[in-house]
């Protein structure tokens, strides 16, 4: 008797499932179709990203390999275009090449390119902090103290691995201007930091002992 009841319950359940699929056939087809389209779109987008990345890598490599002083403008235009693509790998590399080879003379233009990377490019936090530090380094000889402090503030107000580098840059900036008390303040911050770069800490301590009376 129990076996017969079990069979009846099973048949009833199967019939309900069958009826559900028959009743909702159109809806299920639409849902499955939408899911298939989404999956195809996702994988197609990923494939397009890979292809674009390969193209960008090729453009970057071609630009730096073909660089000659006589085709300077062509190289600047190509690398600027790569920076404007806001790629997390090749946009920073393109800017570094421009700076290291002194290709762009206008500091304002270089700072605009820095800002594209810092403000508009999806970078890992410490990569972004490195670029902020490089921007500070690039501007240190020309800007007023408030501007340099402002540029470096995202690093100096954080626990970034680049914090000791930024503090050292500020300390040396003030030392070069013979503002020794301000320089001393930044050197001391480095020395007491728990996660300061060891080499930077050593140099800060040397400066304090040798030149700032400690």
> How far is it from the N-terminal to the C-terminal residue, by CA?
98 Å
- By DSSP, the count of extended strands is 0
Helix/strand order: HHHHHHHHHH
Proportion of β residues? Answer: under 5%
Largest sheet: none
Global shape: elongated
What's the pLDDT, averaged over the residues?
Answer: 84
Would you tell me the structural class of the helices and strands?
A: mainly alpha
What portion of residues is helical? over 70%
Radius of gyration: 30 Å
How large is the count of helical segments? 10
Low-pLDDT windows of residues: none
Question: Would you kindly provide a written description of the structure presented here, covering whatever features stand out?
Answer:
With 214 residues, the protein is mainly alpha-helical. 79% of the residues lie in helices and 0% in strands. It has ten helices and no strands. It has helices at residues 2-23, 25-65, 72-84, 90-100, 107-120, 125-139, 145-156, 163-176, 180-192, 198-211. Helix 8 (163-176) runs antiparallel to helix 9. The longest helix is centred in the first third of the chain and has 41 residues, at 25-65. The mean pLDDT is 84.
In short:
Helices cover 79% and strands 0% of the residues. The chain is mainly α and 214 residues long.
What are the key terms here?
single chain, 214 residues, mainly alpha, 10 helices, 0% strand, elongated
């Amino acid at each position: 008797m129990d076996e017969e009841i079990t069979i009846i319950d099973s048949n009833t359940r199967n019939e309900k499932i069958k009826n559900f699929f028959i009743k909702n056939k159109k809806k299920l087809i639409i849902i499955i179709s939408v899911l298939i389209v989404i999956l195809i779109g996702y994988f197609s987008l990923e494939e397009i990203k890979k292809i674009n990345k390969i193209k960008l890598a090729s453009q970057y490599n071609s630009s730096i390999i073909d660089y000659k002083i006589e085709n300077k403008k062509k190289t600047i235009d190509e690398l600027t275009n790569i920076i404007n693509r806001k790629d997390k790998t090749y946009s920073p590399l393109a800017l570094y090449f421009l700076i290291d080879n002194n290709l762009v003379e206008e500091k304002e233009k270089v700072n605009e390119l820095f800002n594209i990377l810092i403000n508009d490019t999806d970078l890992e936090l410490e990569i972004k902090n490195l670029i902020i530090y490089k921007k500070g380094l690039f501007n240190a000889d020309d800007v007023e103290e408030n501007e340099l402090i402002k540029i470096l503030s995202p690093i100096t107000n954080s626990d970034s691995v680049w914090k000791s580098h930024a503090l050292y840059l500020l300390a040396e900036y003030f030392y070069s201007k013979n503002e020794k008390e301000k320089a001393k303040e930044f050197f001391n911050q480095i020395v007491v930091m728990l996660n300061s770069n060891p080499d930077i800490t050593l140099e800060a301590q040397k400066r304090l002992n040798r030149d700032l009376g400690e």
